[in-house]
Every structure is written in structure tokens, then in C-alpha cells.
Amino acid sequence: MNILVLVKEVPDMEKVKFDQEKGVVDRSSAEAEINPFDENALQAAVDQKEKEQKNVTVTVMTMGPQRAEKTLRDAYARGADKGVLLTDRKFGGSDTCATAKTLAAAIRKIGNFDLILCGEKSVDGDTAQVGAEVAEFLDIPHAYYVEEIRNLDHDSVQVTIENIGGDRQVRTMKLPALIGVTKNISRPKLPTVNRKLESLTIQVETITLQDLNGFMSEEECGFKGSPTKVSKIEIPKEVKKNNQVFREDFTAFLQSVTDVLTEKGIV
Questions:
Q1: How far is it, in rounded angstroms, from Cα 246 to Cα 33?
Q2: Of 25, 12, 2, 222, the residue nearest 111 (C-alpha)
Q3: Which domains does the chain have, with CATH numbers?
Q4: Which residues are bridge partners to 116 per DSSP?
Q5: Which residues on adjacent β-strands are paired with residue 34?
Q6: How far is CA 26 from the centre of its chain?
Q7: CA–CA separation, 204 vs 66, rounded Å?
């Protein structure tokens, strides 16, 4: 059983700053870390490995600059077996579509994965699109907002999808398949000292655009392959609210609403 976990390196969102002039995230203003939702996906994969007590290999893949290798070493320390880094200047500027195409191309190149896990979204982008797009480009079934892996064998996986609209869904999919998980699926564990030391010396596989020749073209990645462009990021200004509380005084409430609407010229 081969399980692949897609992770993203993100800045510490509690410390990161925004460049108001350029309208972009200043990623150099805070240390990078594994996207929190991806930590849950990684732990879920490691939990399956420990639960099955069989020949299960957990591979972690990320796309980013060379420094993202640190994220893969951290993933190894947390229980992964291998790390794969997609890095090339031509990958820069990729939107969700180009990112998913690049990841899918690398997955096809490496091949032989039974189950792909990822977090439901990243805390820096919050789009919740990449995982599903990867599944579509690979033409495999997928499920999102998964909070439990109920059963996993060599042919299928059964998952529980979180309560959406008052309903909880149980879905069974043939493998290979992709699932995007919520934080409810696992509790990430801290790495042991031995795994941490081992992670410093492991060999991380590197894949560049040239390595993906035959699986994707330069026009499909980076800025060239991105149909969407972010023109500007703005931080919402804090709006001071003047609240009024009415308890069992319906007449006063109606009068207050009327006064506000009249003041704004609506009535």
C-alpha cells in the first residue's frame, strides 16, 4: 500500500505581514511551516500505516523553492518514509490550476500510489481547490471534508464526510483515490528525537520541469499556465459598530430601524 500526502509550506499566519504597497503576502516576514490541515493529513496517513501493520509506505510531496526541503524533513520526522520536492523557477506564480497540473504530472511520473491525502485547504490561500483539481487531472475519484477513514484495503477506501447541512455522509471509493481531510481526522503528534535526527540526513527526491518532460509542458505551469491572476490583496479595515440592544420592546426596535433607514435615505 502506497500512500501519498500532498503538503504545502505556508508562513506562520499569526506573524506574517502584508505588503500594502504591492498587495501581496510578505512570506519573508515569518517562518515557514507545514500547512496545519496538511499536518492532519500526514498524521492520518501515519495512523493508517501503524494501524495496518503491513507494508505501507507514506510519501510526502510538496511544490516550492529549495527551502521547502525543510518541510519534507519535518514530515519525515513526523512519520513519513520519503519526501519529494517539486522545485523550478518556472513553477513560480502558479495558481491553483497550474499547481494541481504540476502535482498531477509529478504523480503520474512517479506512479504507483493507492491513496492520496491532503488537507481540505491551506491557511494562506483558503481556496480548498488544489486537491480536487489534482484528482480531476488524474481522473480518479475523490472526497472532500473527510473526518474519518473507516476502512482501507487494497481495492477501496470508505470514508466519513463531516456534517454538512445536517447530514453525515459515508462514501466508498475504488482505489486509487484522493481524499481531502478536516482537522477532525487526527491529532498530529510531535516527532521523536531519533526521527528528528534521522530527518537531517535523508535523501529528498527533487523534480524539476525538465524531469516532467512528456507529462506536462512549460505553458501549463507557473504564470503561463495560470488562468487566474491575483491583482491585489487588501486587508479589510476595521469597522466600528454602534450596537443597540432591545429586549421585548418591539415598538422601540421598529422605530430605531426606521430612523436608520431614513437617515441613509432608503425610506
A1: 47
A2: 2
A3: 2-220 (3.40.50.620)
A4: 4, 178
A5: 9
A6: 19
A7: 11
Sign of the C-alpha dihedral, residues 70, 217, 121, 139?
A: negative
104: its cell numbers: 498531477
What sign for the dihedral angle of Cα 53, 178, 42, 44?
negative
What CA–CA distance (Å, rounded) separates 100 from 44?
22
DSSP-derived letter for residue 252 is H
Note down pLDDT in tens along the chain; length 267 residues: 999 999 998 876 666 666 656 555 665 656 778 899 999 999 999 999 998 766 899 999 999 999 999 999 999 999 999 999 999 999 998 999 999 999 999 999 998 899 999 999 988 878 889 999 999 999 999 999 999 999 999 899 999 998 777 788 999 999 999 999 999 999 999 999 999 999 999 999 999 999 999 999 999 999 999 998 777 767 677 777 777 788 888 888 889 989 888 988 887
- Write the secondary structure of 182-205 as one string of H (helix), E (strand) and C (coil): CHHHCCCCCCCHHHHHHHCCCCCE
User: CA of 75: how far to CAs of 41, 60, 88, 141, in Å?
Assistant: 11, 7, 21, 26
The C-alpha cell of 107 is what?
504523480
C-alpha cell at 31: 517562518
CB distance 59 to 20 below 8 Å: no
State the Cα–Cα distance between residues 175 and 90, nearest whole angstrom: 32
Nine-digit cell string for 152:
482501507
Cβ–Cβ under 8 Å, residues 225 and 94? yes
C-alpha cell at 149: 477513514
